[in-house]
Design a protein that fits this description.
The protein is an all-beta fold. The protein has one domain. It has no helices and two strands. A two-stranded antiparallel ribbon has the order 1-2. A hairpin with a 2-residue loop joins strand 1 and strand 2. It is globular and about 25 Å long. It comes from Klebsiella variicola. One of its GO terms (molecular function) is ATP binding. Keywords: ATP-binding, Nucleotide-binding. This is Peptide ABC transporter ATP-binding protein.
Length: about 35
């Protein structure tokens, strides 16, 4: 995904764990607009 993401950094080489918020799952080291629960 790195080439498609303007926020990609070196950490993005490693696969992040799958995380969920409000019935939405994502795997990103730097998710945008996600509230802390």
């Amino acid at each position: 995904l790195g080439p498609r993401c303007p926020y990609a950094r070196r950490e993005c080489i490693e696969t992040p764990r799958l995380t969920g918020a409000r019935n939405h799952l994502y795997a990103c080291h730097f998710p945008l607009n996600m509230e802390k629960e």
